[in-house]
């Protein structure tokens, strides 16, 4: 059984050496493996360091992007270029310990699952705000998506050849990879672990990137936001009809003086305007994704592909 390790990297020069040593230490117990590093447009020495190891180890492959295309594009590149019977996706920051790989492989063999996804019990080294927003992220995506995803999970997972082959059929961009894997079905098994703090450096996954990922996840797997806009529109119309009937009855049947004032008018106008803007924003997000898709641009551009040139 050939094992592929997929490692997306972006400005990780401070941890690459430690990561490489720990990966090699783990994989030394296996006869057939490859490590695919994807340099996602790093502007530090990440590419140089990985290339140095590639020249020393015939099992190392390095794909370098022409610019930063994002974490999901880097993971996608690794899956598409995998030649293993199984592939394990792991980030370079060492928050997901490489030492768990043998246990994940054992669980894969034991459970005969197609996917072993790592589920976080705890998140060490993260501040309160980061933990809260992460929890909200997973639950919001799950709430609004038509497909139910396992919560408290990232891209750290083992996938087998069935998943890899199925993934290669997807043409959509941008991709929400953990969502696509859940959408595929097959047998999927959780693997519980404690997430560690970063070994060095700072996270490259900003709140803006998290927000964009959440939008991609929701829009790619749900039409609920459009339906929510429809419901808000219907409720607004009902409120308007009820208020109109109330005013009509009070004025024509009870000769009541209608209170004249700007407050009620402004509240109604602001509320209706907010509903309309919200609905237009939701529609615009869906249209923007359709626009991105029909342009049919490549998911990423590989500047250099170093799979050979092994130097003894």
UniProtKB/TrEMBL annotation:
It is a multi-pass membrane protein. This is Glycosyl transferase family 2. It comes from the Bacteria. The chain crosses the membrane at residues 228-249, 261-287. It comes from Brachyspira intermedia (strain ATCC 51140 / PWS/A). One of its GO terms (cellular component) is plasma membrane. Residues 4-166 form the Glycosyltransferase 2-like domain. Signal peptide: none annotated. Belongs to the glycosyltransferase 2 family. GtrB subfamily. It is found in: Cell membrane. Keywords: Cell membrane, Glycosyltransferase, Membrane, Transferase, Transmembrane, Transmembrane helix. Pfam families: Glycos_transf_2. GO terms for molecular function: glycosyltransferase activity.
């Amino acid at each position: 059984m050939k094992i592929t390790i997929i490692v997306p990297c972006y400005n990780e020069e401070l941890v690459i050496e430690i990561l490489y040593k720990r990966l090699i230490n783990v994989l030394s117990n296996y006869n057939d493996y490859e490590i695919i590093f994807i340099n996602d447009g790093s502007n530090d020495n990440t590419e140089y360091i990985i290339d140095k190891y590639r020249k020393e180890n015939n099992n190392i492959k390095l794909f370098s992007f022409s610019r930063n295309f994002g974490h999901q594009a880097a993971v996608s590149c690794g899956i598409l270029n995998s030649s293993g019977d199984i592939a394990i996706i792991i980030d370079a920051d060492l928050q997901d310990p490489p030492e768990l790989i043998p246990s994940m492989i054992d669980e894969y063999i034991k459970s005969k699952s197609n996917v072993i996804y790592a589920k976080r019990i705890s998140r060490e080294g993260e501040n309160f705000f980061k933990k809260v927003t992460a929890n909200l992220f997973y639950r919001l995506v799950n709430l609004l998506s038509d497909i139910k995803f396992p919560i408290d999970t990232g891209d750290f997972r083992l996938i087998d050849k069935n998943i890899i082959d199925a993934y290669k059929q997807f043409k959509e961009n941008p991709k929400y990879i953990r969502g696509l894997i859940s959408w595929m079905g097959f047998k999927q098994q959780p693997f519980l672990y404690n997430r560690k703090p970063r070994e060095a450096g700072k996270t490259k996954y900003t709140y803006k990137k998290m927000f964009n990922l959440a939008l991609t996840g929701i829009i790619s797997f749900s039409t609920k936001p459009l339906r929510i806009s429809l419901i808000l529109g219907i409720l607004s119309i009902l409120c308007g009809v009820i208020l109109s009937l109330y005013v009509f009855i009070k004025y024509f049947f009870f000769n009541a003086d209608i209170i004249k004032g700007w407050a009620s008018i402004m509240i109604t106008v602001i509320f209706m305007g907010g509903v309309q803007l919200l609905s237009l924003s939701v529609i615009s997000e869906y249209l923007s994704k359709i626009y991105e898709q029909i342009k049919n641009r490549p998911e990423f551009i590989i500047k250099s592909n170093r799979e050979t040139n092994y130097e003894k």
